[in-house]
Amino acid sequence: MDAADIVASVLVLGIIIVSLLSNVVVLICFLYNPEIRRQVPGLFILNLTFCNLLLSVSNMPLTLVGLITTGHPGGSGFCQVVGFLDTFLTTNSMLSMAALSIDRWVAVVFPLSYHSRIRHRDAVIALGYTWIHSLCFSTVATCRSWVGYHHLYASCTLCNVRAKGAGTQFIIFTVALHSLTFLLTLIVMCVTYLKVLKVARFHCKRIDVITMQTLVLLVDIHPSVRQKCLDEQKRRRLRATKKISTFIGTFVVCFSPYVITRIVELFLPGPISPHWGVLSKCLAYSKAASDPFVYSLLRHQYRKTCSLLANKVLKRSPLNSSSLRMENNGGRSNANSNTTNNTQPQTNNTQPQTNNTQPQTNNIQPQTNKPVGQ
How many CB atoms lie within 10 A of CB 64? Predict the structure, then answer.
């Protein structure tokens, strides 16, 4: 092993560890929180997590073994099964990202009719399409024996050496596979997220107009408060842009080198550097490690669920619940003090009423005595 193989092995090992831990955390949050399970995007995230986990335990370790041993890991039959999973899981994860982008587009552009447009039945139909689409391409590649160990990527995947006899058929298959998965997903993500960004900027402009009108009316406002409002206004403009650039940017950076290398490999007569092939494959693997953070763990619901699970494991009560208990106890003590204070005047007020009845009885006695004297 040379220095480049050692660096690539360490990189693949780090990707495996991060991918396993992060995707397992997402799966635990999905199973623990019923609110996440009720949401329609949770089905797409669950499917994406399933693909990433299976890729982390099947394809990535074999690539690591291939880098360490610089040879063929396992037999040809086992490698064909792993190559089938490589094509299926990569295609399925890409289409899941396209489904998530469509869901966000409908949620932002049509917020009032979102629940009628996107239902669990629609999500199941979309997931069924992704599975059928992925199974068709991976099954065709396996049945035609186009899957095997590729030394350029040090992994079991589509192999040009095994498809030499196919010629034009393998070229058409490879171009169709990447056009209907990578290119289609990229177009869908760009169109939907740009629509989301347009709506977000429109709402930001409306909020900015209201903020500026408020700052103009409030003449006596402190300069520090005014500056905080302006800073929040800038952060609000950049927040949507950062999120959308993260969604599209991670997809392009992770998958485009691998897909471009695949297409160039079909038409390039000379060999490609194996270091570049391994690097492009590692970038494709890194998408499985970044997806949990991009789509799940940075959201408020998942962060809240993770904090609740951490507090439960560490057997400590969260700060919010303790503060709520203190507030409730304080409210109860105040209520008890108010009730005791209110009851005391009532008892005091009843005493004069009883005293006032005595003169009335005394006044009655002379009236009754006068007829008796007469």
Answer: 21
Separation CA 85–CA 7 (nearest Å)? 25
> Mean pLDDT in each 10-residue stretch from start to end of the chain (374 residues)?
84 94 94 89 93 93 86 77 92 95 91 86 93 95 88 85 73 93 95 90 71 63 68 74 91 95 87 89 94 90 89 71 45 46 42 42 41 38
Whole-number Å distance between alpha carbons of 127 and 47: 8
Closest CA to 155 of 238, 102, 213, 80: 80
Residue 105 in contact with residue 189, Cβ under 8 Å? no
User: What is the reported pTM?
Assistant: 0.77
β-strand partners of 158: 147
In this structure, the dihedral spanned by the alpha carbons of residues 16, 19, 22 and 23, taken in order and rounded to 10 degrees, is -120
Domain 3-314 matching CATH 1.20.1070.10: the answer reads: yes
Q: Which two tokens stand for residue 86?
A: 């490589």
Backbone angles phi, psi at 157, to 5 degrees: -160, -165
How many degrees, rounded to 5, is the angle at CA 239 between CA 237 and CA 242? 115
Strand partners, 149: 156
What sign results for the dihedral spanned by CA atoms 120, 195, 204, 230?
positive
Would strands 155-158 and 147-150 be described as parallel, antiparallel, or unpaired?
Answer: antiparallel
Domain range summary for the chain, segments of one domain joined by +: 3-314
Distance CA 105, CA 215 (A): 33
* C-alpha to C-alpha distances, 353 to 344, 349, 357, nearest whole angstrom: 15, 7, 7
Token pair belonging to 278? 């391994």
HSE, side-chain direction, 13 A CA sphere, residue 161: 9
**Count of residues in the chain:** 374
Taking the alpha carbons of 219, 224, 225, 227 in that order, is the dihedral positive or negative? positive
Angle at 73 between CA 68 and CA 76, to 5 degrees: 160
